[in-house]
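Sample entry (356 residues):
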Amino acid sequence: RTLIHVPGYEQPIEFGVLIYFAYPVENSNEKIIVATTRLETMLGGTAIIVHPDDQRYKHLQDKYVQHPFVSRRLPILTDTTVDPTFGFGAVKVTPVHDQNDFEYGRRLSLQFITCINDDGLMSSECGLYSGNPRFEVRQQLLNDLKQRDLYYDSKENEMILPICSHSKDIIEPSNDISAGNETNNDYWVSAHSYDEALDKPSKRFNISKDKIQLTQDEDILDTWFSSSLVPFSSFDWPTETDDFKNFFPTTLLETGHDILLFSAARMVMISLELTDRLPFTQIYLHPMVEGASERKVSQSLGNVIHSPNLIHDISLEKLQKQFKISKEDYPYNIPGCGIDILRFACCANAVQDYLN
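Predicted structure, serialized as tokens:
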């Protein structure tokens, strides 16, 4: 159990708790107990699934439970992937808000209902709870379950909680997951040639190449394609706007020499093809800045140094809070160097490929 302060809420929210609650079986006095760490997602539930061989639920298969808070009947279905030893062996399925539930929903042709909007409020599908903040609804549902005698138990549950590094908010799967993905990753391979594409699945599935039928993916897009459009797409091309007329083409492109062919060359080719004009007349290639370990400075490597830290100074303790930088590069601290050192670096910019 962990209390975490979530943006937008005055009180900390409790995580790491598995809540057990019951659904009443339709036209029966029986109940089916399920468990969840995100109680508010029950409002988007569309089915209860059990293992087909679980004797406890044999007589309930293909029957329905009644959702206690919205006018929705949930079918009791079976799936062999359900673990009958976990909890009470029954699983509530909310296809839009969980990857595993999404797979259940696709296999069992379930209804996909969004219960949490992008703004963190409950959707219009949530009855009386619609429009309320999700974590407030979590606590309200817990109270309402207890009032209806449907609450069973709560247990500590270790879990991984994704938190946004910028907003400190809880990260949830995008609602776009409901659109699905037609690609089956189990049978998708990346290769440089047809022969290589045959070789990989042959080894993976231990079958001969003559039994493999390949279909080339039609949706592959060069990752540099969108950047090659920037010189004119940023001015609302193909509309002949005033900005497009005044600022395209430009005169100078400044870029790193490492992406000359990836970016600059593609800009030239695409621009000539679509506008019959060069996007720029000059290219200024600047060198790549390296760290003390002679590796390129980049955010992905975590060795970026902010200019104000060089102009003034920063202790190692504060530095480690900002960056994942090694003690080998800066064993004590970064001393204040003043603004001139940056001016000298800019002067050296034009005469070498790498700055260290």
